[in-house]
Amino acid sequence: MVLGLVGGLLGGYLGQLGGSATEPAGVATSEPSGAPVASGGTDSQGFCDAEAVANAVLPSVVTINVVSETGGGVGTGSIIRDDGYILTNNHVVADAVSGARIVVTFSNGQQASASLVGRSQQADIAVIKVEAGETLPTITTGDSDEVAVGQPVVALGAPLGLSGSVTAGIVSALGRDVPVPADDGSTAVLAGAIQTDAAINPGNSGGALVDCDGELIGVNSAIATVPNAAGQTGGGSVGIGFAVPINLAISLAEQLIETGNVSYPYLGMQVVVIPQDVAAQFNTAPGLYVEGVTAGGPAEQAGIQTGDIITALDGEPATSAAVLTKLKLTKKVGDTVEVDYLRGTETGSTTLTLSETP
Question: Among its keywords, does the record have Hydrolase (predicted)?
Fold first, then answer.
């Protein structure tokens, strides 16, 4: 399944990274040992010293095979704790919920079974764990808030199942909100995604996007593809890839490791999308139609009523459910959100304070 990119990518389409895989060979019970990665640095022209980055980071990057009775898939992950916790995408390991087996292949070729710790379908982030017999090499976490457009980066993973692949590029843009399909039929959002032209292909999903010091700044998650003459989309890189910022990904991962779940802020209302064409047909505003308001919840306390049409949230047009998902991923309990709405023919604005889910 593919979706048009929010904001318009002329002629481009967005597809989640996948890939196919066959049943891996025998599963080993031992894991490689190592220490956190060291700095890679830049070369004389100011680009990442990709060789140094690869040597430093690849030991902490794994290939993930998910094997079920109906087939399998391949993706990538980064070891974030030396006792076996691995960060990846939800869409890489979602089949494990229905009984598929997860097999991790380390950079030295050793393999181990892994279990699903938890996942955030809304952010397309998941954590798996291997039972490490030894201390595992871990990736160093950077600060995605310090990332700048134009800075050089390196992507590491298993495109098309080719483990240990390394590509280089730059940060092409920041703050992209990229909707992608979730496995439960809803829409996930890569909130504030890092856009890069480093080649990313199916199988890179869940893998590392790092800076020149080998520090993890993003989780590679999706690519844009260009449709052919028949309107079908290709599956390869066209130099437009998207990564979940590591600050968000790690925040979610820590919750998953501690509790197995992610707690999202609560708005206390149920909405449905009014698309532009439907709004025009009924001579009303596009936005989010409020189907219901929970008694005593944040929306009711803010004065939102059933039948209102929310036209903007936190300054952003409320043109899709993705804007709600982004709020849940980027806001915390106690944060306030400005809500613009239409009630009949009257416009209004209010402030909603997010609370914990009851």
Answer: yes
Last residue of a domain, one of 259, 290, 312: 259
Q: How many helices (H) and strands (E) does the chain have?
A: 6, 21
Do 146 and 192 share a domain, yes or no?
yes
CB of 220 closer than 8 Å to CB of 214:
no
User: For 287, phi and psi rounded to 5 degrees?
Assistant: 160, -150
Query: Domain boundary at 225, 259, 293, which?
Result: 259
Please name the residue that has the structure tokens 């952003």: 316
**How many domains does one find in the chain?**
2
Distances (CA, A) of 21 to 160, 166, 202, 207, 220: 9, 19, 11, 16, 19
Q: Residue 95 and residue 20: Cα distance in Å, rounded? A: 13
Closest CA relative to residue 127, chosen from 76, 66, 86: 86
pLDDT digits (tens, 9 = 90+) for 230-257: 666 666 788 999 999 999 999 999 999 9
The domain of 31 spans 1-259
In a domain, residue 76? The reply is: yes
Contact predicate 187/273, CB 8 Å:
no
Of 112, 117, 115, the closest CA to residue 127 belongs to: 117
| Residues recognised as catalytic | 91, 124, 205
Q: Are residues 249 and 134 in the same domain?
A: yes
* 310 HSE (CA, 13 A, CB side): 36
State the pLDDT at residue 59.
97
Q: What pLDDT, in 10s, does the model give residues 122-169?
A: 999 999 999 988 899 999 999 999 999 999 999 999 999 999 999 999
- What is each CA distance from 126 to 121, 207, 265, in whole angstroms? 8, 12, 19
Regarding whether 273 and 218 lie in a shared domain, the answer is no
Q: What is the pLDDT of residues 187-226, one digit of tens each?
A: 888 999 999 999 999 999 999 999 999 999 999 999 988 7
